[in-house]
Amino acid sequence: MISLLTTLLKRRRRPPPYILCTTLISVGGLLFGLDTGCIGPITTMPQFQDSLGGGDLSATVHGLIVSSILIPAAIASFFAGPLADRLGRRKGVSIGGVIFALGAALEAGSTDLAMLFVGRVLAGVGEGLFLSPVLVYVCEVAPPRERGVLANVSQLLTTAGICGGYFVCYGTVRLSGSSFGWRVPFVLQSAIALAYAVAVMACVPESPRWLEMKGRRAEAKTTWEVLGVSAAEAEKVDEQAAAETQASSSTLPPSLDRSDLEGTVAKTKAHALLRVFRKDVRTRTLLGVFMSGFQQLSGIDGVLFYAPLLFARAGLTSSEASFLASGVSGLLMMVVTVPAFLLADRWGRRTSTIVGGLVLAACMLIIGSLYASNSVYGDRGAARWVVIVLIYIFALVYCMTWAVGVRVHASEIQPRRTKATATGLAQTSNWTMNWIVAFTTPIFLAKSSFGVYFLFGGCILLMVAVCAAMVPETMGRSLEEIDEAFDHHHHHRDGHVHPHGVPSLVGDVGRLWTTWSSGGRKNAPRMEQEEIELSVLS
């Protein structure tokens, strides 16, 4: 991030086209964040419940409305890659944007719950189709020195979308007595999605890497020039993408007729799932699936989707007060995301997972204990403010630690030969647990005021224990060093070998504190970033 800002300041002119194009296509993250930030507040609006819920929504229906977008998105994401490979990256993104716009329009015009569910499903399909090609496009277009930062623009816009969604609902909830209070946020999503789809087709050139894959080399060369990427930088992108392609197809026969290629590749992909569970790699596969799933079982989406409900239970009983508190949390999350990205490569994936997890677990367990001891008395008493502050701390610490590091860590521990398939399985685990949390959180809260907090806290502690005992640090390590750590059942960290695989947590805490106190000025060895980032291309 710092290098990118320095480059732009030195140039003192408009950013090169590839930055503008990758930023524009990353607006898909904003759409994802808008839905996440809007749907929870919408379902708690009195206007919404009067229009579609007969004055009150059961916890089960509440959970279904919020979570119904996730499973269609997960299923659609399986088809997003083949669609983008056949039609092109920008067409795949635009098709997803149009479908999302149609779904949001149906949600806005819903006259009953059935129509709302159809709209949520359509929006989920669109979401699944445009999210995956966005990151692929960025990594295929951006020069290596700026790829990591540009790939994170989507995450930053997602956080901005969550914040925006909260504040939009804070404004529209004041339209009391009118269904426009809950319809306007959906109309806004639909309009932005449609404009996004049109803008991508009109302003974003196709990925040169995709054009080369289709044999359109002259057009690809022209596109590199349009994007403002130098010939040397374009060659680096091509070389790295070629290395990824060669690694992913290393099991193909050395001699293969063109007519047999498609069938052979299909067979190779059919055996990919079996390869990730072979004895030499299955531990890493299962760890990636576990880490991605338990990232969601921390309860973060329970906080994001149901923030107004959580704040209302803590004593902010009016809709406006709970929505404002949710908006403030979204704003703070957006603010801390920027330094979190700047420092992510300096304090380490493992460190942020373990230390951050301990703080997250403490927040959940303290909140659960306050509710279990009946210390929270509606809209009075100090305990309710403790709960509100801890919800803020939980969300902010998550954004600074787990949101940045867990997904990357789960991918980095995978060997190159199975990285694509193992990472895909991990993402499926993430989507599945996301749906479970979104669906069950209101049901848990209706049954028990404290049980869900103890559950999330326990899941976080289990994640911390597994990472401390079994997962090595990957920051600054080559892929060969990571392989050696797993093959010999020991962990590398800071140049030392830990044969028992349970390194001291004191070192992790000290390292995190040193990074924060130095303002991130201490340079840490960087991993072979180009090899890590190319995992998303699969």
Automatic annotation (TrEMBL):
Gene3D superfamilies: MFS general substrate transporter like domains. Residues 240-251 have a biased composition (Low complexity). The keyword Nucleotide-binding does not apply. Pfam families: Sugar_tr. Signal peptide: none annotated. Belongs to the major facilitator superfamily. Sugar transporter (TC 2.A.1.1) family. This is MFS sugar transporter. It comes from Dissoconium aciculare CBS 342.82. The lineage of its organism: Eukaryota, Fungi, Dikarya, Ascomycota, Pezizomycotina.
